[in-house]
Design a protein that fits this description.
disordered N terminus; mainly alpha; Serine Threonine Protein Phosphatase 5, Tetratricopeptide repeat; elongated
Length: 250
């Protein structure tokens, strides 16, 4: 069996979550050729998906050493660094991956989420744009861009993204929450409350929906309802008020 055949044979095992057989095939491929970057990449990816981060990192390091232009290896190594809290190294690897593969929607989306978590919303928006341009088939990216645009004050564009996300994934509570935030920033309080109600019907402890609905109720003069929602939100997430302040809503 050649190295390519051995590596290909492992793919059905990965699809069935049969990591033991997949890893055995990758081990065999590497024994046949210690310079086979793809086998190290595949084994490292399998290790990562199986929660063995250190082994995964060692294999991805080797794949990159053997092929310094191996874009997917940088992307998967970036995910390990991200999950280990090494954000600078993760961003550097995502950057290298996207330099080598500019249309890699998965890595653009992953890096955008990192920028969003860092409150770097302009850079997050650039990467969400890149991800959608490369692959417009995933509702989650439209929702992410919706909330990012809402935070940045691009409210009509945000509504368009949320509408697209809901067409692709009707009734999604997270997208309803994002659209509600957009309506809240637009001053359309009734529409905001309706979306928050719908989001909370599907996910009753969604902290951002509780807090946003509380703010909308307060603006409508429902002080008691506002305080109940805000207290419930803070019970789930003590930092929710600071988060909304970053969004420009208080």
């Amino acid at each position: 069996m050649t190295r390519s055949t051995t590596t290909t044979a492992a793919i059905p095992y990965i699809g069935k979550n049969d990591y033991a057989h997949a890893l055995a095939d990758y081990d065999q491929a590497i024994k046949l050729d210690r310079t086979f970057a793809l086998a190290y990449f595949n084994r490292g990816t399998a290790y990562r998906e199986h929660g063995e981060a250190d082994r995964a990192l060692a294999d991805l390091d080797m794949a990159i050493k053997l092929d310094p232009n191996y874009g997917p290896a940088y992307g998967n190594r970036a995910r390990i660094f991200r999950d280990k809290g090494e954000r600078a190294r993760a961003l550097a690897d995502f950057g290298k991956s996207l330099q080598l593969m500019p249309n890699n929607d998965r890595d653009a989306y992953a890096r955008a989420n990192m920028y969003f978590d860092d409150h770097d919303y302009p850079r997050a928006l650039e990467d969400y744009d890149r991800a959608i341009k490369a692959n417009a088939s995933y509702a989650g990216v439209f929702n992410a861009r919706c909330v990012t645009r809402a935070i940045l004050g691009q409210l009509q564009e945000a509504l368009a993204d949320c509408e697209q996300s809901l067409r692709m994934r009707p009734g999604d509570p997270y997208t309803l929450d994002s659209r509600a935030l957009t309506y809240l920033k637009l001053g359309n309080l009734d529409a905001a409350i309706a979306d928050y109600d719908a989001a909370l019907s599907a996910k009753p402890e969604l902290d951002s929906a509780l807090y946003g609905r509380g703010l909308a109720k307060r603006k409508k003069g429902d002080a008691d309802g506002a305080e109940r929602d805000i207290a419930a939100a803070k019970a789930v997430n003590a930092g929710i008020a600071d988060l909304f302040a970053r969004y420009g809503v208080q």
